[in-house]
Predict the 3D structure of the following.
Amino acid sequence: MTATPASDSGSGSATAGSGSASRSGASATPAIELRGLHKSFGSNHVLKGIDLSVQPRQVMCLIGASGSGKSTLLRCVNRLEEPTSGAVLIDGIDITHPDCDLDLVRRDIGMVFQQFNLFPHLSAIGNVTLAQRKVLGRSDDESRTVAIEMLERVGLSDKADSYPSQLSGGQQQRVAIARALAMNPKMMLFDEATSALDPELVGDVLDVMRQLASEGMTMLVVTHEMGFARRVADHVVFMDQGVVCEQGPPDAVLGSPSTPRLQQFLEKVLEH
Ligand SMILES: Nc1ncnc2c1ncn2[C@@H]1O[C@H](COP(=O)(O)OP(=O)(O)OP(=O)(O)O)[C@@H](O)[C@H]1O
Ligand SMILES: [Mg+2]
């Protein structure tokens, strides 16, 4: 199934087709599917009918102006936000259904935020082992072995015993990624994972994300890094005021935007 534009956008939705064919079977059950997703905070109608599908092994980048609803959308995917209406399906299971075991579903979904949210009193390895022990019930030995492997994967095996205050922002973010990966997620959500970093530290984190993508991780990535979106994404979605305004392969969406809103957005982003 290919992703479809929001039906009630009224803002000139355009679809340039799915770019995921090379990485995923067209008939697979989507890893993430949003159907008619609405979210309001009081009278603020933030998401206005989002229909999206992320295929297994697909990397979807979500771009859009501040306040367009990107974080809210991402947080609805694991129900950190409660959708007002519509459905969220993870591997075909509607997680908005009252019978759904949300804890179980959330174990499959790793999330990395702009702020790394590491425990300051725990070393890197302490941060990566904690949820493994508490949530998955792994032994000290097993969680440590997995943690070392994951810290290696993000290029930080030499920092296992360092505390967050002894690590750069980029290193802390890579610990946060290792922490998420240690839970063996089926998919990863990234919400502006590099926005809080000094420019020279962004590359190392993007490299880890690029590596994950090349290993076939299913990823939904909110980012302002247009170079990353262009090179790594299979599919780019431009959100504007709570609707999907444009979507398709990165070259089409970023190279020849068809709506004035996206053209303006890209001009602004590329100015900086
Ligand atoms: N918990 C909340 N309570 C009330 N309003 C909220 C909450 N979270 C988000 N909003 C509102 O929802 C709208 C969309 O916010 P959201 O954070 O999803 O935007 P965004 O696209 O991620 O923006 P940015 O690029 O700045 O991160 C904003 O008007 C925001 O004020
Ligand atoms: Mg946001």
